[in-house]
Amino acid sequence: MPLVGLKELVQKAYKCDYAVPAFNIHTYEDAVAIVKGAEEMKSPVILMASPSAIKHLGIKVAACIMNDLAQRSSVPVVSHLDHATDLDIILKAMKAGFTSVMYDGSNLSFEENVQNTKFVVKVARAFGVSVEAEIGRVGKSEEGEQLEQILTEPESAKAFFEQTQVDALAVAVGTAHAMQKQEAQINFQRVEQIQKIVDVPLVLHGSSGVPDEDLTRISKMGFGKINIGTVLKTVYVQKIREILLNKPELKDQITLLKDASVAVTQMVKHKIELLNSAGRA
Ligand SMILES: [Zn+2]
Prior knowledge:
Layout: H1 6-15, E1 20-24, H2 28-41, E2 45-49, H3 51-57, H4 59-72, E3 77-84, H5 87-96, E4 100-103, H6 110-127, E5 130-135, H7 154-164, E6 168-171, H8 188-197, E7 202-204, H9 212-218, E8 223-228, H10 230-246, H11 253-274
Parallel strand pairs: 1-2, 1-8, 2-3, 3-4, 4-5, 5-6, 6-7, 7-8
Bound molecules: zinc ion (ZN).
The site of zinc ion has 4 residues, from loops.
């Protein structure tokens, strides 16, 4: 299945009652495990490289891993750059072959965010790349650093979309990044208000912290893309710890990482089920 753009996948989900799962990759092994889960569920999937993954892998290696897996996959796969605040990184990602980028100007003023996002959209169109941007601010950074949460104002979201024409819009409606427990309290009233006046697929960040039933509910409320990262890291490391404790005779890392990545595939399949994305490939 060829590599696909974000726009076509999220538009389709947005019009139907499901959301496309977007999972953060950090190593080659977890990327393989994510695609395997999506294939087993016949679900489209978005692979995302966050700033920490880019720092670890390098932008070219991240693009190669994701794009190679996409080409060999039986389901549509998007290679997406997550939370880029630097325009230079975005240009490098487009050149490296990413099919989608997120420009994160959520720490800037509305005007600056609009201006920079417009620039990214203009360049991305020339590359045939999709663009996600953020309005409002999701609490906590990807690394777990505390940030003030600013819930998205529906009118700002509307004005932002009208001026930038992004393909997907991340909004802050009660989630936070890096949550270890599913204790996020989604402001459903705010979601409805935004959805009513902004006609663009929405993106939910920090979805590891969302309770299962709320994840299903939100996947039917105008969200085309649901970002999940933290829980995959947690189950992967837990499984590695368990294997090391139970198999002291184990001597090679290929077996260790392959066996541990089963936990990632299982969690991916569970989240796909919740998002009603199974069978949508
Ligand atoms: Zn995020």
